[in-house]
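Q: I'm writing a short methods note and want an example of a predicted protein-small molecule complex. Could you take the sequence and the SMILES for zinc ion and return the bound structure as tokens? Please keep the output block clean; save any remarks for afterwards.
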Amino acid sequence: MHNLCNAQCVLCVQPHYDDNDIGAGGTIAALSAAGVSVVYLTVTDDLVGVLDASLAEDEARQRLREEQRRAGEIIGVQQHYWLEYADAGPIDYYALRRDIAAYIRRLRPDYVFTVDPWLPYEAHQDHILTGRAVAEAAILYHLPRFKTLPEVDAAYQLHVLRGVVFYLTHAPNIFYDISSTVEIKHHALQTYCMQFTDMDMRALLEKLTKTERQCGERGGVERAEALKVLDPAQLHIHLNV
Ligand SMILES: [Zn+2]
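A: Understood, no commentary inside the block.
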């Protein structure tokens, strides 16, 4: 049985700057409050989602990071890293898998959070590629002949990744109680202005509230987030016995 609160460190890998917080912000805030070290790794540069087309790219990048840092302070994120792949692609899947595996080796997390890439309907390749690259990195990171970056590989001592936590999932196996952190999550989300009009944000928060209540009912608590937590061994030739 997975007890996320017992983790020392969780690495949360998101395609875009707000996915971790939308999908699992309440859970992540609860883990941070319990003393878990929370690190965010953002895959893309997020520029395609910026609403103001007249804004210079450098200015847009800076403002996106400022928003993300402010939200992270509210949630309790200790460290941010960015890979800066182009938003909406093209993304080299194998380079992404290598980069994510390098962070797993560097940071030695107990759990990696990411989007569920196996939704019946998910059109965004950034989400599909990120979720799949995390899942595959989770079954390869420990193999001595698997290469990431020479300096990372040389320093790596074997550790155990206990699980992958997929959020925004259609097949949850955990309804994580976020009753005490839901306000923190919604407060953090309201710092995201570059990609949301006020109306978009209100709609998002309304939808989230409904979903969190429904998940809460299924989990027997007031508010919850739906998560799919899998042992890495369940991500390759998994035999159900
Ligand atoms: Zn996204």
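A: Remarks, as requested: The first strand starts at residue 9 and ends at 14. Residues 198-219 form the longest helix (22 residues).
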